[in-house]
Amino acid sequence: MVTMCKILAIDAGGTTTRAVVVEPSGHCHGLGLASSGNPVSGGFDAAVTSLVSATQLARAAADTGSDAFTAAVIAMAGAGHGFPLGQVRALLVPLGLRGELEVVSDALATFCAGTLRPDGYVLVAGTGAVAARVEHGRLAAVSDGLGWLLGDAGSGYWIGHRVAGAVARFLDGRGPQTALTGLLLDALGIPATQLALAEEPARGRPAVLAQLVDALYALRPVELSRFAPLAFQARDDDVARAILADAASALAATLASVRDPAVDGPLVLGGSVLASGLLAALMPGVATPVLVPDGLVGAAVLGLRSAGVDVDDGVFQRITGDIAALRNTARREMPLPVTRAPESPLPGPLAGG
Amino acid sequence: MVTMCKILAIDAGGTTTRAVVVEPSGHCHGLGLASSGNPVSGGFDAAVTSLVSATQLARAAADTGSDAFTAAVIAMAGAGHGFPLGQVRALLVPLGLRGELEVVSDALATFCAGTLRPDGYVLVAGTGAVAARVEHGRLAAVSDGLGWLLGDAGSGYWIGHRVAGAVARFLDGRGPQTALTGLLLDALGIPATQLALAEEPARGRPAVLAQLVDALYALRPVELSRFAPLAFQARDDDVARAILADAASALAATLASVRDPAVDGPLVLGGSVLASGLLAALMPGVATPVLVPDGLVGAAVLGLRSAGVDVDDGVFQRITGDIAALRNTARREMPLPVTRAPESPLPGPLAGG
Questions:
Q1: pLDDT for position B204
Q2: Residues of B numbered 155-214 whose beta carbons fall under 8 angstroms of chain A's beta carbons: which are they?
Q3: Which of A148, A220, A295, B72 could bond to B8 as cystine, CB 3.0-4.6 Å?
Q4: How, if at all, do strands A201-202 and A205-206 pair?
Q5: Which residues of chain B are modeled with pLDDT < 50?
Q6: What is the pTM of this model?
Q7: Number of neighbours of residue A175 by Cβ within 10 angstroms
Q8: Which positions in chain B touch A353 (Cβ < 8 Å)?
Q9: Are B146 and A220 in contact (CB < 8 Å)?
Q10: Contact A81 B346 (CB under 8 A)
Q11: Structural element, H or E, at residue A240
């Protein structure tokens, strides 16, 4: 019976949700992409919608016909603490889910995306940031992952927030000039000509600062992670380089706090912030890590294991290879434009002074 | 005619709104207090409601009967950028407003609450933080006041955010023990017995951390300013002392950025964070400042000036003395309990790991 089963594996990230259909052989079919499946990013309803959209796209792309899923596994920050799993399961049943819906930590899934070893360490830095020590295939210690407001040190939000802050301080006369200014104004659609006028104060400060502040407060705070790539883009700029170095230090400290001299094993790094390897090179004490883009492969591994499949090197290589190939052709739901949040967030401060 | 006029003066702070009725002589009547009148704290509707509530209480306490207000002046962060002033005026007319509604910067009002001199400097640190240079009775340069997300360095939000972060890091195993932990858990109604259990990890981390994270994400971010007093309360604690020292440095830097060697004058410090004088003592380069609690006296001064009254030392002393006396007996609207924000904020991250 095991050879007949199909597992639905989902990685619910802070920016992107990925779903794939995996067989016991490790072969994967259909990769569907949707928006954030993390409730911290956009609320529970938006996260549930993303999970369903990604599943629909994966199912359509996999061309599984009327085949059912024996089980589904969702990798999610914090392993779904507070998440309306009953609601998700009810929505997945019409899409073919027959068995259990299991939720696993994004940190564990990322670890399992990089190695089959039972012990080791994982550091995830995407929209958020979390580190964990894995022992016997389970989380033994977790650090950070406390979200944009209280933690996620070194994450995409953390970097994007500092990018925005550095530009605001420059325009406010409290910080050094930085190449991030032009990049951020451009990303927000504020005309570059406004920057040339930055010297003309309106009520004691440049008018472009008020435009910037209004534009940034119109976003959900966690959306500041959109600006993390600007720091990498401007990495020859002193301000950007300092932000990236601070992020590397913060991530190294988070990782160090879960280290146990008695536990040895590989270090897996995952998430968009770590994907390029640039930040890993800046992190003290980090040598030869395994880089993975996200936790999707690990969600597939954990789903097969829960279904009783012995995931050996051959199965693992098939999962990894198939998902890498599928990423090149994956279908994504129509991205939603970034707009003012539906629940009308609070206005920004009154930058006119 | 000037001697017959009455001015409604309002100071719309990030935590408290204050309204008072002032006569050309400087005599003040009726002080009404309400919740935040700053839209960044709770949205435009809540801010408008606070302005109206404070006015109603001031009018009732002043026992002005059917007397009308010749004009009203509201001191507000950013001088009301984006604020629905037409709506506010329409609501104040039934309460007696006959003339103009003027909005002035909270920074200028705070300056005018401390001195009649035309030139000088002001630093406000309440829920938010802003510094300004005043020349000829007008703002000549403004720094910070960029709100909780992008600035307000050294403000009540900034301090409260660091208090919450320090406690989260301690419970997460990434920061030193601090006396702030017990104080914060107590302020949030999390039983102290939970702290004793902090060593018992749930999925790799203490269960009390998940409770703390859930409680903090249930607040509006700017409400973290509620925890700033804990840093002052625990100021003998190393972590708390470092937070206060950093706040003092940040405020000193903001102030320094508006200094002009050619402009001399008094330095007025206002807002709850600076009220005790403790932070001012930690600020490099700050000597003999004038401390004022808020901008209400300044709003009254500016209101009288706009009405053509020559505010001399005698008038100023009467405003200052009367408002100080009224503060002891002021009526406040029933405070609203701090609850989950009405627009259902985003859930916190999933601290279970």
A1: 55
A2: 161, 164-165, 168-169, 172-174, 201, 203-205, 209-210, 213-214
A3: B72
A4: antiparallel
A5: 1-3, 200-202, 335-347, 350-353
A6: 0.86
A7: 17
A8: 78-79, 105, 107, 130, 132, 139, 142, 145
A9: no
A10: no
A11: helix A238-256
